[in-house]
Design a protein that fits this description.
heterodimer, A: alpha/beta, Glutaconate Coenzyme A-transferase, 2 domains, nine-stranded mixed beta sheet, three-stranded antiparallel beta sheet, globular, B: alpha/beta, two-stranded antiparallel ribbon, 7 helices, 13 strands
């Protein structure tokens, strides 16, 4: 009998699972090691299920054709993510307009192989007018007006978590990023980058802590969520995120693309691996963030 | 500092804090400094059984002397106060129990019936003049919570418009006490619209925004000049009940210690 197949792959191989035109879901904590590899490979025309600054970065890097997004704020006093705003206003990308409950209903419909799930939030709004995929329906039980939300089915979900074994058993630290579980359930394939790979024995010692039972691939990713937080390991690098937002704002609103181009080159395109990236961030900065 | 000894944002926060009742579950999203201050102040002064929910971090910290404002709405360090945490996908797990829940909403446009728009501005969805951040969870929250407050960081005719280009949260639709019931929308709808100049209410039976009170130093005519729809102005408009010295002291020493509401005016 052959041995059980291990699922650990390197980040370059993992990113090659993402091909032009696919639908890709991005989790939180942010799977930044994987996202940077996708940017480095120059993947195009993605439909991304994503929000916030990671969505902005993928748009700024030219990877996105369509955003399934319920929220594209920038944070730090930037009400709308700058690259997102510019790309939508110039009609360069399409938005699958939704909100939190509609998003999770669509993901759940995909996971459970249903043609739709009903949701009430959004009745009376413009959402079904600007997103024709959402249908106003009368429910057959009580005759109430609801929205029918079709499946949102990612080809690949990209996630970041605390630990996993070689067989795709993932354990989060201090409670999972719960949207991540919707993304995993809905997606055809899931890649999880983790802070630490642990022995299968450790998983079996506490199977109740396993949050994702069967990720398709595991990638070594210590500090792999930087500049975002990783629960139980490190806090968010707000100074780095502010620098990114300044660069993205300058490119989108002031017609000064140099800072953003420099950011993408320095942090996304030149570093061949996560290790190369972390060298650029610097050990001193990383150690400053090592608290939770 | 304008308006005697307090800023319009301080007035707004104190007005809202008085509105909140012990036992309320208060849900606050991002970029809402006035609401963030109001729920903290109410919790400390008269809400030992309130629950504060900041982006899913649910807490009761009425025993603390101070509840400072985080510098950044997404800062996960608010979790240090939390008794439980619900991330995206689980914040809407028990909608059936949202009668006691209260939330605060902003918008890039607000119309006289309290419908709000976070999608964008422009006549053509595919050619927006301004793209907003998106609906977040406001369509569901506005549908189901017992009551909510529209809280605006500025008061301009561009923001307060006769008709929203797009509606992301349904308030009172095109008006009427039954506007929500007709669509089967169960929540209590918007109660007040609170701005740096005034408080608007939604009186029955038409539910069209009407001036309830103006903040110190503001006239009804100034409100009309900065509002993009016609207001029915009574002969005299009451003044918003000003903060008491005790309320201001509590706000400044126990909540807004960094002066966020004093700087933004």
């Amino acid at each position: 009998m052959s041995e059980r197949q291990q699922r650990i792959i390197d980040e370059v191989t993992a990113a090659s699972w993402v091909q032009d035109g696919m639908t890709v879901a991005v989790g939180s904590p942010a799977p930044m090691a994987l996202l940077r590899q996708i940017i480095r490979r120059g993947v195009k025309n993605l439909t991304v299920v994503d929000s916030g600054i990671t969505l902005d970065l993928l748009i700024a890097a030219g990877c996105v054709r369509k955003a399934v997004s319920y929220y594209a704020g920038g944070g730090f006093g930037v009400p709308v993510a700058p690259a997102f705003r510019r790309a939508v206003e110039r009609n360069e990308i399409e938005v699958w307009e939704c909100e939190e409950g509609i998003l999770t209903s669509g993901l759940q419909a995909a996971a459970q192989a249903l043609p739709f799930l009903p949701w009430r939030g959004g009745v009376g709004t413009s959402l079904p007018e600007v997103n024709k995929a959402l249908k106003v329906m009368q429910d057959p039980i009580r005759g109430e007006t609801l929205l029918a939300v079709p499946p949102i089915k990612p080809d690949v979900a990209l996630l970041h978590a605390a630990t996993a074994d070689a067989y795709g058993n993932v354990q989060h630290c201090g409670g999972p990023g719960w949207l991540d579980l919707f993304l995993y359930r809905a997606a055809d394939r899931t890649i999880v980058q983790v802070e630490k790979i642990i022995p299968n024995e450790e998983i079996r010692a506490n199977p109740w802590a396993t949050t994702i039972a069967g990720a398709d691939a595991i990638v070594r990713g210590p500090y792999g969520a930087h500049p975002f937080y990783s629960r139980g390991y490190y806090v968010q690098d707000n100074a780095h995120l502010r620098r990114y937002l300044q660069a993205s704002t300058a490119a989108a609103q002031e017609n000064r693309p140099e800072l953003l181009a420099q950011y993408l080159t320095t942090y996304c395109r030149e570093p061949a691996t996560l290790g190369d990236y972390l060298e650029r961030v610097g050990i001193k900065r990383l150690l400053e963030l090592y608290e939770y | 500092m304008p308006n005697n000894d307090y800023t319009p944002f301080e007035q707004m926060a104190i007005f809202l804090a008085r509105e909140l009742k012990d036992g309320d579950v208060l849900r606050v999203g991002v970029a809402m400094p006035v609401a963030e201050a109001a729920v903290r102040l109410a919790h400390l002064t008269h809400g030992p059984n309130m629950e504060l929910v900041f982006l899913g971090a649910r807490m009761n910290v009425a025993h603390l002397d101070t509840i400072p404002m985080p510098a950044f709405g997404w800062d996960r360090r608010v979790v240090r106060w939390a008794e439980s945490y619900s991330d995206t996908g689980h914040r809407f797990d028990r909608i059936k129990d949202w009668d006691r829940h209260v939330f605060f909403i902003g918008g890039v446009q607000v119309d006289p019936f309290g419908n709000t728009n976070l999608i964008g501005v422009g006549s053509d969805y595919n050619r927006l003049r301004f793209r907003g951040p998106g609906s977040v969870g406001t369509p569901t929250l506005s549908t189901h919570v017992g009551r909510y407050y529209i809280v605006l960081n500025s008061h301009t005719a561009r923001l307060l418009v006769e008709k929203c280009d797009f509606i992301s949260a349904y308030g009172w639709g095109t008006g009427g006490t039954d506007a929500r019931e007709k669509l089967g929308i169960p929540g209590g709808g918007p109660r007040y619209c609170v701005t740096p100049m005034c408080i608007f209410e939604f009186p029955e039976p038409h539910k069209r925004m009407q001036l309830r009170s103006v903040h110190a130093g503001i006239t009804a005519q100034e409100v009309q000049a900065n509002t993009g729809f016609a207001l029915t102005l009574p002969a005299s408009v009451p003044a918003t009940e000003p903060p008491t010295p005790e309320e201001l002291h509590a706000l400044r020493t126990r909540v807004d210690r960094d002066g966020v509401l004093r700087r933004q005016a």
